[in-house]
Design a protein that fits this description.
227 residues; alpha/beta; Metallo-beta-lactamase, Chain A; six-stranded mixed beta sheet; globular
C-alpha cells in the first residue's frame, strides 16, 4: 500500500467531517435476489448520514420496496448506489434503485466484463479504482480492491466501518472462481485480506454480503481461512 493510500485509509477511519459516530446509521436488509423457489439471500445496506440527510445504498440485490420505505422513515435521500462486485445477487436492484432515487451508480472497474455481459455497463456512472475516495452523502467512501472472489471485488470503508461484500464474511471468505488450484487461489485471497483488511483496527465493524456482521479482530483471530 503506497503512502497516498495509507493517508486515505487513515482519514477514512476517522468519523466523517469530524461528526460523532451516532450521526451515521447503518441499516442491513436481507433481500432475495433469486426466486421464491430458488432464493438467493444477500445483505444490502443503507448507510445514512443524518446531518446531511444523505445516504448510500450498497449491493441492492433486488428491487425491494423496503429500501424506499426505510429511506423515507429515516428522512434521507439515496445519492449513490455502490456494488462491491458484479455478481447477479449484488446488482439485481441497480437499475430500479438508481431510477427511483435519481442516484448515481458506482462499481468496480475490474468487474466491467461482468457488467457488460449482464447488459448493465451503460448505466454505470463511476468505475471505481483501488484507493479511490468518493465524497458523497456527508461522508467519504474509500475503495479497497480485494480481488479473488471476482477480479473487481472491492470493500468500502465508510466512517470506520467496512462493507466487505463477498470478500470477507464471519468465519469465511468468498468462493473463488473455478481454477485448477483452488487451494492456491484461496491462499492468494487470504493474502489480500491480510494486507488490505486486517491492518484495520480490531474493533472495525465488518458488514458482509452474506451472513451476520462481525469485526476485523474476530476474523483475524477466528476465521479458519486466515489462520
Amino acid at each position: 500500500m503506497n503512502s497516498a493510500c495509507r493517508l486515505l485509509l487513515a482519514l477514512a477511519l476517522l468519523p466523517a467531517v469530524a461528526v460523532a459516530a451516532d450521526t451515521v446509521v447503518v441499516k442491513r436488509l436481507v433481500v432475495n435476489a433469486g426466486t421464491a423457489a430458488e432464493p438467493a439471500p444477500v445483505n444490502s445496506y443503507l448507510v445514512c448520514h443524518l446531518p446531511s440527510r444523505g445516504a448510500v445504498l450498497i449491493d441492492p440485490g433486488a428491487d425491494d420496496g423496503r429500501f424506499a420505505a426505510l429511506a423515507d422513515e429515516l428522512g434521507v435521500q439515496v445519492r449513490l448506489v455502490l456494488n462491491t462486485h458484479g455478481h447477479f445477487d449484488h446488482v439485481g436492484g441497480n437499475r430500479a434503485c438508481c431510477e427511483r432515487f435519481a442516484a448515481r451508480l458506482a462499481v468496480p472497474a475490474a468487474d466491467r466484463p461482468l457488467y457488460e455481459k449482464n447488459g448493465g455497463a451503460e448505466r454505470v456512472d463511476i468505475w471505481l479504482q483501488d484507493g479511490q475516495a468518493l465524497d458523497c452523502a456527508g461522508f467519504t467512501v474509500l475503495v479497497l480492491a480485494t480481488p479473488g472472489h471476482t477480479p473487481g471485488s472491492s470493500c468500502f470503508l465508510i466512517n470506520g466501518q467496512l462493507f466487505s461484500g463477498d470478500t470477507l464474511m464471519a468465519g469465511g471468505v468468498g468462493r473463488v472462481p473455478e481454477v485448477k488450484n483452488e487451494a492456491k487461489a484461496l491462499k492468494a485471497l487470504a493474502g489480500v485480506i491480510r494486507k488490505k483488511l486486517l491492518v484495520l483496527p480490531d474493533a472495525t465493524p465488518v458488514w458482509p454480503g452474506h451472513g451476520r456482521p462481525t469485526t476485523i479482530g474476530d476474523e483475524a483471530l477466528l476465521n479458519p481461512f486466515l489462520n
